[in-house]
Amino acid sequence: MIPRLAALARDDMDSSLDAIYEDMLLNIDKLRKEKLDVMELRLLNTAFKELRYALKVFKPYRGIPKAAVFGSARTPKHHEIFRYARDFGKRLSKKGWMVITGGASGIMEAVMDGAGAKNSFGLNILLPFEQAASPVILGNEKLIHFKYFFTRKLMFLKESQATVLFPGGFGTFDEGFESLTLVQTGKAMPRPIVMADNPGGTFWTSTLELWKKNLTEERLISPQDLSLVRHYQDMEEAAEEVVHFYKNYHSARFFKDEYLMRFRKPIADATIERLNGEFADILSHGEFRRLESVEEDDQKDPSLGRIIFAFNRSSYSRIRQLIDVLNSL
Fold first, then answer.
1. How many other C-beta atoms lie within 10 A of the C-beta of residue 324?
2. Which pTM value belongs to this model?
3. pLDDT value at position 74?
4. What's the average model confidence in pLDDT over 187-215?
5. Contacts from 291-300 at CB under 8 Å and sequence distance 24+?
6. 170-184 and 149-158 helices, crossing angle to 10°
């Protein structure tokens, strides 16, 4: 190993993280032997620096829920949807949430203006046009600049608990499909995905009709996959959809080859019976049951209700419907 890297591996390291740091340093050492060209090395270095800095900025705010909000940078301030996006940001911040936007003009500026700079993060992408930071977030420590779209999108999804889509162009669809794909395939945890229009607006209505015709009816997605998104033309309802998703649902993860879901309220026998009746199709075998012992769970809170089951690992849109049922109790 490069002597300087070997010294870093021994210096002030948390012993529980030794193996991870050493693996990272080992991979850096391997780069020297693999003789990558300078552009490849710069790509890796820039991506690493962007992620390291972004993680540092977000760390003090990890305990506050956040919504990633996307929409056009070209929406003028006099447009009706600008006013509704600002209203949405204000309503969501009053419910205790922060917002993460691209940090630029249009819908992004409206949402941040409504939420307030102290409740906003701006993940700005460096482009030759159109993407200068909004005055709302300019100079704020929570404004982060990215060279690469992929590092920026990773931080949007990693640091948020909800995705909200206002009308926008290719970028908005790209970020919306990213959320949908990751949730549909289980690469991201369940989350609310909200499409927001102004009253009478047809942007997302027409989009959903197109998806139903070209995707659902052609059997390119499952019929229940469209339940992953919810469409609203009322900003209070849109904000409440984000918050309500976590009314009872807490979190989920795989646990000893089974799927563990945590809820804020105890799970009654009648609820278990209902799940075994309505959601038997998502089981690979066995039944839904409570997890009574929490010793091995990384969330030690004994007040959380827990269900565990042998998930078929494909019906993630049905997981969203299961959450809806338990949130309604």
1. 14
2. 0.93
3. 95
4. 97
5. 291/255, 291/260, 296/255, 297/255, 297/260, 297/262, 298/253, 299/250, 299/251, 299/262
6. 50
3-state class percentages of the chain: helix first, strand second, coil last, to nearest 5: 50, 20, 35
Residue range 36-60: mean pLDDT, rounded: 97
Distance CA 273, CA 271 (A): 5
The amino acid sitting at 244 is: H
115 to 86, 98, 254, 318: CA distances (angstroms): 7, 7, 34, 32
Question: Distance (Å, rounded) from C-alpha 232 to C-alpha 254?
Answer: 32
Q: Which two tokens stand for residue 97?
A: 């949430």
What Cα–Cα distance (Å) separates residue 83 from each residue in 19, 277, 294? 50, 45, 47
- Compute how many other C-beta atoms are within 10 angstroms of the C-beta atom of residue 320: 23
The residues near 49 (Cβ < 8 Å, ≥ 6 apart) are none
The residues spanned by each domain of the chain are: 3-55, 60-244, 249-327
Cβ-contact 267, 290 below 8 angstroms: yes
CATH topology of domain 60-244: Rossmann fold (3.40.50)
Sequence-distant (≥ 6) Cβ neighbours of residue 207 within 8 angstroms: 195
Burial letters 133-172, b for 16+ CB under 10 A, else e: bbebbeebebbbbbeeeebbbbbbbebbbbbbbbbbeebb
- Contact between residue 83 and residue 110 where contact means Cβ atoms under 8 Å apart: yes
- Both tokens assigned to 197: 């229009």
